[in-house]
């Protein structure tokens, strides 16, 4: 299993550009999520999905869109990039998002995308 | 009020030392508790889940105190490879899919 994969690894955008960060998992996990990590801030949840066709907002959703058309893929779209979106973005998946017993809510993270917005 | 608080450190300890980290959380309805490890410029990885009865995995011991709303991580016989940032993670409460991450505690084990 490849686990959770993310592309691209690095990206530089200009203010106002749009782009999609890709995330895929091959573990048949129902729950997927996107976080951003900024220095001194810890990881913050952007959006999450509990299954194909179902998405919801996290703590910092503004400026981002998501969709979940398949179990495997959970892309994150930046609509109009701003310098405040410069960050490291992590995608994560788990068998279940809820406390369903040992291991079921373990989050597996992708390697991250380092995004700089100029 | 911050929901998950950790001492950011850094904790600089010699090899072989025992080191302990604490983490406090504000949501009394939280049900799931974890310690994740994050190496520099890498993704977080689960170190261990924290159960009500406490749990141990080799040199690592995690404890949960629901009454005082804190969890702890004890590392015995520290190795150089233990150098990393340790993240305290708590779910938002019963039925919640949202996890809250602490900002992390940085550990450096020195020869």
Overview of the molecule:
- The complex is a heterodimer of chains A (118) and B (111).
- Helices cover 0% and strands 49% of the residues of chain A.
- In chain A, strands 2, 4, 5, 6, 9, 10 and 11 form a 7-stranded mixed β-sheet that branches. A 4-stranded antiparallel β-sheet of chain A has the order 1-3-8-7, with no helix packed on it.
- Chain A has 118 residues and is mostly beta strands.
- By secondary structure, chain B is mostly beta strands.
- Helices cover 0% and strands 51% of the residues of chain B.
- Chain B is built from no helices and 11 strands.
- Chain B has strands at 4-6, 11-14, 19-25, 33-38, 45-49, 55-57, 60-65, 70-75, 84-91, 99-101, 105-110.
- In chain B, the strands form 2 sheets. In chain B, strands 2, 4, 5, 9, 10 and 11 form a 6-stranded mixed β-sheet that branches.
- Chain B is globular, with a radius of gyration of 13 Å.
- The model of chain B has no long low-confidence stretch (mean pLDDT 92).
- Chains A and B meet through strand 4, strand 5 and strand 10 of A and strand 5 and strand 9 of B.
Low-confidence stretches of chain A: none
Main sheet characteristics of chain A: 7 strands, mixed
> Tell me, what's the shape of chain A?
globular
Helix content of chain B: under 10%
Helix and strand topology:
The complex is a heterodimer of chains A (118) and B (111).
Chain A (H helix, E strand, L loop, with lengths): L3 E4 L2 E4 L5 E7 L5 E8 L3 E10 L2 E4 L6 E3 L9 E3 L8 E8 L13 E2 L3 E5 L1
Parallel strand pairs in A: 2-11
Antiparallel strand pairs in A: 1-3, 3-8, 4-5, 4-9, 5-6, 7-8, 9-10, 9-11
Chain B lengths: L3 E3 L4 E4 L4 E7 L7 E6 L6 E5 L5 E3 L2 E6 L4 E6 L8 E8 L7 E3 L3 E6 L1
Parallel strand pairs in B: 2-11
Antiparallel strand pairs in B: 1-3, 3-8, 4-5, 4-9, 6-7, 7-8, 9-10, 9-11
Short description:
Chain A is an all-beta fold and 118 residues long. Chain A has strands spanning 4-7, 10-13, 19-25, 31-38, 42-51, 54-57, 64-66, 76-78, 87-94, 108-109, 113-117.
């Amino acid at each position: 299993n490849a686990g959770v994969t993310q592309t691209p690894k690095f990206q530089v955008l200009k203010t106002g550009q749009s782009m999609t960060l890709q995330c895929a998992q091959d573990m048949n996990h129902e729950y997927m999520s996107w976080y951003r990590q900024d220095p001194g801030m810890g990881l913050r949840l952007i959006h999450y999905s509990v299954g194909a066709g179902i998405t919801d907002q996290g703590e910092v959703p503004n400026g981002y869109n998501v969709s979940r058309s398949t179990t495997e893929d959970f892309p994150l779209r930046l609509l109009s990039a701003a310098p405040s979106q410069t960050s490291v973005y992590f995608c994560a998946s788990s068998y279940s998002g809820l406390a369903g017993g040992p291991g079921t809510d373990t989050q597996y993270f992708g390697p991250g995308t380092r995004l700089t917005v100029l | 009020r911050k929901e998950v608080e950790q001492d950011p450190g850094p904790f600089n300890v010699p090899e072989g030392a025992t080191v302990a980290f604490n983490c406090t959380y504000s949501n009394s309805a939280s049900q799931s508790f974890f310690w994740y490890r994050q190496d520099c410029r890498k993704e977080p990885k689960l170190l261990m889940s924290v159960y009500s009865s406490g749990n141990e995995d080799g040199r690592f011991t995690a404890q949960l105190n629901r009454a005082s709303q804190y969890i702890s991580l004890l590392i015995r016989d520290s190795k150089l490879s233990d150098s990393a940032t340790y993240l305290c993670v708590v779910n938002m409460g019963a039925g919640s899919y949202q996890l809250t991450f602490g900002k992390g505690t940085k550990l450096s084990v020195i020869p």
